[in-house]
Specification:
The structure holds 2 protein chains of 2 kinds.
Chain A lengths: L1 E2 L2 E2 L1 H8 L5 H13 L1 H19 L7 H9 L15 H7 L3 H14 L9 H18 L15 E4 L3 H10 L3 E5 L2 E5 L3 H8 L7 E5 L1
Parallel strand pairs in A: 5-6
Antiparallel strand pairs in A: 1-2, 3-6, 4-5
Helix pairs in contact in A: 2-3, 4-7, 6-7
Chain B lengths: L5 H8 L3 H23 L2 H18 L9 H22 L11 H10 L2 H8 L2 H12 L4 H8 L3 H23 L3
Helix pairs in contact in B: 1-2, 2-3, 2-4, 2-7, 3-4, 4-8, 6-9, 7-9, 8-9
Classes of the chains: A alpha+beta, B mainly alpha.
């Protein structure tokens, strides 16, 4: 379709993409041969396309992937509707079982597994597999022992800065490996103390 | 056309975390690229992707059979990126997360380059269209479904987005 004397954008786009039927292609090439404005426009579009298509895919870091997998909340049975928003669910439904598995690994090894490129993957995969097995193992999924079932929060910044900020608000916090251990404070108190910090990669473990 | 993610999605809908982990593996880099190109920051993009996967996991039981999973997932990612942008504008910058992985360093370099500066200048609808089509290789039909516009509108947006991008780059590059 032609508006006035120039083809429409969609026609020119199909031309650039090589999607025009032969008859229309011939018409359009005849127009481009005599219309410097459209020819220049097509050249610009090709230049833009080339720059975009030469750009590379950006990769998510393994640390972030592990943080994603570790922060997936427990989910209710399929089809059941949630009465809380995903945001609220993120804050409230941090999976006790998954956290238990991760914390058990921390307690056992003293290594949070987030510093290297390899250790974290193994830990989180093992945790996810353990959770999956637990979920499909039949019967009610029982929480791990109370001793291991520590609650956690993920926040932004460095572990040192988070611990320093919490201590400044009177909360007992110390850096252990690359997570922050909090004692004697509730989740609500810590969230309030963190104020405007965003969700991030630093894990706070409540004991 | 059969959704290549279909079997994993069905398992993940029933609560299979392993299946969802495979879906994360499969889509993580494209999700990150999408969020990073929309937001221009690897930290904000990482937060948006994390939020998007959590939302997807929670909403998966309600995912409609017959829909394409990747299109649904990318839409969640675009929404999470919008929310992240609004949040980043509200929130005072805290201590930057120490991103030491080479992938983060590469992302940071890419996002401080000419292409990203030009993308940042594009109108949102053009930026989204060219990133989905030219960078991620989505089809017109997928983009039309994701952005809820006709395929002709998608083509027009890609066309104008590319043209505008070249114009900005030509201007910013100056004489060579």
């Amino acid at each position: 379709m032609v508006t006035g004397t120039h083809p429409e954008d969609v026609d020119l786009f199909d031309y650039v993409e090589g999607d025009l039927a032969a008859a229309r292609l011939e018409q359009l090439e005849a127009h481009l041969a005599s219309c410097a404005q459209c020819a220049e426009h097509v050249a610009m579009v090709r230049a833009g396309r080339d720059v975009l298509q030469e750009s590379q895919l950006l990769e998510l870091s393994p640390q972030r992937r592990e943080a994603i997998l570790a922060s997936l909340p427990e989910r209710h049975a399929p089809g059941r509707r949630f009465s809380v928003s995903p945001k609220r669910a993120l804050a409230v439904l941090v999976p006790v079982a998954a956290v238990g598995a991760v914390v058990a690994a921390i307690v056992t090894t003293g290594d949070f597994g987030m510093t290297g490129s390899g250790g974290g993957g193994v830990t989180a995969r093992a945790e996810a597999a353990a959770t999956s097995r637990e979920a499909t193992g039949g019967g009610a999924a029982s929480a791990p022992t109370t001793k291991q079932a520590y609650d956690t929060l993920l926040t932004s910044g460095s572990a040192e800065a988070v611990a320093r900020d919490l201590r400044a608000k009177g909360i007992k916090a110390k850096v252990v490996g690359d997570y922050v251990e909090v004692r004697g404070a509730t989740r609500g108190e810590v969230e309030q103390a963190l104020g405007k910090r965003r969700t991030g990669l630093v894990r706070i473990v409540f004991k | 056309m059969q959704d290549p993610d279909g079997p994993l999605v069905q398992r993940a809908q029933k609560g299979d975390r392993w299946a969802f982990e495979q879906l994360v593996e499969r889509h993580q880099h494209r999700m990150f690229t999408l969020a990073a190109r929309l937001l221009g920051s690897p930290e904000d993009a990482g937060d948006a992707v994390q939020e998007a996967f959590i939302r997807a996991w929670l909403a998966l039981p309600n995912f409609r059979r017959g829909a394409r999973f990747s299109t649904w997932l990318y839409r969640i990612c675009v929404n999470a990126a919008h929310d992240q942008r609004a949040k980043a504008q509200r929130v005072e910058p805290s201590d930057e997360i120490e991103l030491t992985d080479p992938r983060d360093e590469f992302a940071r370099q890419e996002l401080s380059g000419e292409l990203q500066r030009a993308l940042d200048e594009l109108e949102e609808e053009y930026r989204l269209a060219v990133v989905l089509y030219d960078v991620l290789g989505c089809s017109y039909a997928e983009i039309a479904e994701l952005t809820e516009v006709a395929e002709g509108t998608v083509k027009s947006r890609i066309f104008r987005g590319r043209s505008r991008l070249a114009e900005i780059l030509g201007t910013s590059r100056g004489p060579r």
